[in-house]
Automatic annotation (TrEMBL), chain A:
GO biological process: cytochrome complex assembly
Cellular component terms per the entry's GO annotation: plasma membrane
Species this chain originates from: Desulfobaculum xiamenense
Major subcellular site: membrane
Protein name (Swiss-Prot/TrEMBL): ABC-type transport system involved in cytochrome c biogenesis permease subunit
Membrane topology, as annotated: Multi-pass membrane protein
From TrEMBL, chain B:
An example Gene Ontology biological process: protoporphyrinogen IX biosynthetic process from glutamate
Classification via CDD domains: NAD_bind_Glutamyl_tRNA_reduct
Domains as described in the record: Possesses an unusual extended V-shaped dimeric structure with each monomer consisting of three distinct domains arranged along a curved 'spinal' alpha-helix. The N-terminal catalytic domain specifically recognizes the glutamate moiety of the substrate. The second domain is the NADPH-binding domain, and the third C-terminal domain is responsible for dimerization.
Function, as annotated: Catalyzes the NADPH-dependent reduction of glutamyl-tRNA(Glu) to glutamate 1-semialdehyde (GSA).
Quinate/shikimate 5-dehydrogenase/glutamyl-tRNA reductase domain sequence ranges: 171-306
A GO MF label: glutamyl-tRNA reductase activity
Ranges for domain Tetrapyrrole biosynthesis glutamyl-tRNA reductase dimerisation: 320-421
Reactions the enzyme catalyzes: (S)-4-amino-5-oxopentanoate + tRNA(Glu) + NADP(+) = L-glutamyl-tRNA(Glu) + NADPH + H(+)
Family note: Belongs to the glutamyl-tRNA reductase family.
The enzyme's E.C. designation: 1.2.1.70
Protein name per the record: Glutamyl-tRNA reductase
Annotated source species: Desulfobaculum xiamenense
Residues that hold substrate according to the record: T50, C51, N52, R53, S109, E114, P115, Q116, Q120
Amino acid sequence: MELYDVLQIGITVLYTFGAVLFIGGMLGMRPGLKTAAGLSSGAGFALHTLSLALYFKLMGYGSFLEGDFHLSLLGWVLLAIFFALWWRLKLDFLALAASPLALLLYLSSMSVPGTKVLMPKALAGSFFMLHIGSLFFSLAFLAMAFAAGALFMHLERKIKTKEKLVGFRKDLPSLNTFDHANHLAVVFGFPLYTVGLLSGFIWARFAWGRIVTGDPKEIVSLAIWVVYAYLFHQRLAMGWRGRKAAMLAMAVFAFCVFSLVVVNFMVPSHHNFMQ
Amino acid sequence: MKQKIFLIGLNHRTAGVEIREAYALKDCNTVELGFVTPAGPVSEALALSTCNRVEILAVTDHRATADDVLQFWASHCGGSVPQLKPHVYIHEDLEAVKHLFTVAASLDSMVVGEPQILGQLKDAYRKSVEFGSAKVIINRLLHKAFSVAKRVRTETAIASSAVSISYAAVELAKKIFGDMSDNRAMLVGAGEMAELAATHLINAGVKDIVVANRTFERGEELARRMNGTAIMFEELHRKLADVDIVISSTGATEAVIRAKDLRGVLKKRRNRPMFFIDIAVPRDIDPDVNGLDNVYLYDIDDLKEVVEENLAQRREEAIKAEAIIASETRQFARWLESLELNPTICDLLERGEDIAARELARTLKRLGPDVSDETREALETLVVSIAHKLYHEPIAFLKRRTQEEGAAQRFIDTTRRMFNLDGEDVPEDAHADRKKVVPLRAVCGGRTSENQH
């Protein structure tokens, strides 16, 4: 897999440049750096797409069972959503979270050995597309909400407490923009999360004959779903906005990261990649 | 310097609004009025007239004085020199240049850093080009002024912070709402400062203004001026749910709006954020309002603090801006001096010798160390004499043409630009606008009036 290795190095270098340049550009208010960062990340993204395609060609649907593919795909989805939001809503500040996070996910994907989950490969395809695809997209939305939420809280505290606004980045978006990003994360993210969870339970019914298998990942995911549903409800039905909504979205994302890192890698579970 | 530059003017600091109105110079055609004449003492002029400032820039030979300019100004406006003179400032030569740069960079404006003045100056310049009263010096000076303004804007943060209370309020509103085209504002009480803040809000793009005043008629009058609507003061609380920004400036001694009034309002508007600006003393809005989620309250002291912090920052930036202006003024002074024939001839020859020396060095390097001293000397003489001979004809031409009346500066300036003797960077698109506008024969006839690079 020589080509694959070359791709790995290329992607890592381009993503690293992208993340560093983005952060430099955002903090130093240098539009030129941001453009360079966008180009670097974009090139990395293109190579990343190629590498995922290669992996998939080699392993077929079984690739969805591999931990490294898993994390690498997550990083890819995160950047895909980021680019879409950048293009449509000019929310380029999300790069502060998206680019380092994608890099991190990609790096960790390289350190993960393959998993050995037994499953008829022919069946795995469409199910995993649904199960993992939707969960990944919702997770990427949550990552965006996390970044937007953190910036919202920071700016809001400054405005509320009348703290020095001098020297504050002039081109930083308004509170409303951050809140809007949060809104998107909830409106699109929650239904996706629900689809991801449901498809998982349906799979469990076929694979193990039971809907609820008592697997740790299941329990944690259900708990997250409950909190996420609460946020969804409060936001859409009760008109929650601003700080509370931002904080809760950040919490949901933190839970998801916990679930990914701790449960998938450290706890015995049929979602574990390290078995 | 053969030419004298006068800049005579008045602004919001030196003259009241009546004087500024009486001595406005809107569309003042100095050529038609006989002020600028081809052979007369005043060869170039530009009149800038805005609501805060009236200025005349005049280029004269030493026959005309500042009083002549004042005389023209006063009689054109139907006033008198004794009435006008106490209000004006008179800058000469480099002081005039520096003042113009300062104005263009918006350092002399009422709201420092506001961008309108540059547009107004560009308009005034365009007019004087149309009238034919802008020639070599004004052309160069104004183009320089525009580029100085651009440098100050991009290299300093002078224009990036608000230094008036009402403007600071608008900047804060932008931080909360971003694009304000969907936002409504309400004025509670029709005070002067509230009106100013509302004007800034309208400029920032708010959708609608509602005025609630105790005297309905006065509120209505204000609403009409702002293209808004007036409501009865008693309706105020009921209307709160529809507005996002509230500017309050009543003379009430008790709080007009309290947190408990807002709970229902917030629910009704599904927690969309609200921004309260309280510029009344004593305060109209209970400070506990700021404790509510998605509600932001700034009173006059908070705003003053923002302004003071901004001012402190601006003082630092102003030092940077002044340094830019000073260095550009020096550069302009060098150019003005070079408008004489002799320095231009020296520069031309020097340029030629320079090129010759560089090329010689390259050739000698290629020939290696074996070149004899004789060959070296012969080559040196050769390149220098070629350079001198090449520039001989242009210099003879310049000497001839500068004998003509009024042609000296034009030809010297053209030569300096043709050989780039001032070593300036000319952007690639410098002539883009002219390619479309100026017909070919005008170029061939050498009759382009604008003197851009």
